[in-house]
Amino acid sequence: MIQQLIFGIVTGSIIALGAIGLSMIYDILDLVNFAHGDFMTLGAYLTFLFNVSLNLNLILAAALGIILTGVISLILDKIMWKKLRDKGAGSITLLITAIGLALVIRNLIVFQWGGSNVGFDLPLSQNLNFHGIMISTSGVLTVVVAALLMIALDLILRKTKIGKAMRALSDNKNLARITGINVDNIILWTWGIGTSFAAVGGVLYGLNTVIRPDMGWFLLLPIFAAVILGGIGNPYGAMVGGLIIGISQEMSTIILPSSYKIAVSFVILILVMLIKPEGIFGEK
Amino acid sequence: MKDNNVLEAKNLVAGYTDLDILNGVSIELKEDEIVSIIGPNGAGKSTLLKSIFGILKPRKGKVIFKNEDITGLKPNKIVKKGMSYVPQDKNTFPSLSVRENLEMGAFIKEDGTKEKINEILTKFPDLKEKENQKVSKLSGGQRQMVAMGRAMMLDPDALLLDEPSAGLAPNLVDEVFQKIEKINKTGTPILVVEQNARKILSISERGYVLEMGENRLEGKGKELLNNEEVEKLYLGG
Q: Would you say residue A55 lies in a domain?
């Protein structure tokens, strides 16, 4: 039972890292970013590229892979999303564009690296064993990294001008614009933070399991559940929602076959929709 | 020689879809003035402010601010020229604290924000007590103060207010009007749209009466207050 809880916290940390960005991007850009999971995959594969193909040490490779994923999202905003925004594209247009982008990223990955599983070049490490409870080094690393990033995000949102402007933008876009807040600039920050968090989540997922082209797509479903559970647009809700979904999925394996894990997040999703559609932290 | 106009709208024509709401409105705002715009619902009062501030793009006419043609500039550019605008509703960031709202008002400034926030909080003592509270927890009157405080963060050369008394209890209305006078006394020209014609005219140097998107009457605030036609139409006899 405690073993499942630990697995759950590890999975939940990864889901939360994805959920934060999805939630912020939805809130600030009105975009349901179906490509978000594929940015997680991209982060993992770019890290794999630097780590295995170019033989860099894993930490350096991960840093490069994560930053590059963030930069790609900034370029995509410049060449694609901003143009759609300026044309006044509706949410359906944006949604379908995001689905298209997801397919493009995934298929480019398959094209470049093939469809089969790959893994990082990891130093062998023993699982830590506390009185029969096993936890892997990568599991510990996952939880620590996720916790540090969440603390960092909290500080950014509360203490920095950019972070406060993000919250202002999520409150009232029109007022933000007439106040003189540089909306395009804040949107770029949102992409940068949201996507690089997703990439970190992807790399951590790759550390704990394997890297495959559809990993992000399958992570996207529990991520959606986490975002809705936590209240759409609330990054703190996304963190908590991610952990709850992760823990529920892993705990469910005590009584259910593990192939039903994903179904568990959907059951939670449906229950939230029925009972408290604004999410646990939602105010609207 | 040019007179001391800070802001001038000349023959503005503007509207939302195919329909023109403004059919050629002209107004002037001079240094140190409070100028009010009154008129019945649908006269185009708010549309006029939106067209001046670039939220609506005028179809015809000109907006001159500090001797510069700013017609058709976007609001984020107009803010940088030194004009601030307080919309009628949704004019604060509710999940941000009072202090953070003010800070956002100075987003385009690099420094001096802290000093300015403290200066504004001294002018609005009610807000000082609540500076770290979320604006959503404040009363309507206090929210209006936050909105005006935010607009004052840049020391604007002209301040546009859209119905600052809308939805406020009568005692709060007086308070808001006092603040408007106080802000004006410190040297900020204010162009204000109001439903509460009697109150706003009594503190305005000049006023304009709009009707059907056109200038109907204009004059000194006191004169308009005593004008029979205005009295009959807008001051409730």
A: yes
Local mean pLDDT, 10-residue blocks, chain A (284 residues) = 91 97 93 96 97 93 97 97 92 95 97 92 78 85 96 95 95 93 95 98 95 95 93 90 94 89 88 87 66
B interface mutation test: which of A175, A186, A283 has the most B CBs within 10 A?
A175
Select the residue of A167, A174, A182 nearest B96 (Cβ to Cβ): A167
Give the A:B interface size as CB pairs under 8 Å: 63
pLDDT, one tens digit per residue, over B144-180 is 999 999 999 999 999 999 999 988 888 889 989 999 9
Half-sphere exposure of B88 (CA within 13 A, CB side): 12
Structural domain tally of chain A? 1
Rounded-to-integer distance, Cα B229 and Cα B67, Å: 34
Residue of B nearest to A183 (CA): B76
Residue in B with minimal Cα distance to A172: B93
CA separation for the pair A174, B88 (Å, rounded): 12
Assess contact for B230 and B237: CB atoms under 8 A. no
Q: For residue A135, what are the contacts with CB-CB under 8 A and spacing of at least 6?
A: A6, A127, A128
- Cα B103 to chain centroid distance, Å, stands at 20
What is the least distance, in Å, from the CA of B224 to any CA of chain A?
32
The reply to whether residue B93 touches residue A178, judged by beta carbons under 8 angstroms, is no
The secondary structure of chain A in percent helix, strand, coil, rounded to multiples of 5, reads: 75, 5, 20
CA A192/CA A197 separation, integer angstroms:
8
Instruction: Write down the CATH superfamily of domain B2-234.
Output: P-loop containing nucleotide triphosphate hydrolases (3.40.50.300)
| Identity of the amino acid at B64 | I
pTM given for the model: 0.89
A243 part of a folded domain: no
Q: Taking CB atoms and an 8 Å limit, are A179 and B79 in contact across chains?
A: yes
Residues of A in contact with B85 (CB under 8 A): 178
User: Chain A within 8 Å of B90 (Cβ-Cβ)?
Assistant: yes
Nearest chain A residue to B56 by CA: give it: A178
Pairwise CB contact (< 8 Å): B104 & A168: yes
B13 touches chain A (CB under 8 A): no
CB distance B107–A182 less than 8 Å?
yes
- Indicate whether A15 belongs to any domain: yes
Alpha-carbon dihedral sign for residues A99, A100, A103, A105 = negative
Q: Please report residues of B whose CB lies closer than 8 A to that of A164.
A: 96, 100, 103-104
Q: Are A228 and A279 in contact (CB under 8 A)?
A: yes
Domain span holding position A153? 2-220
ipTM above 0.95, yes or no: no
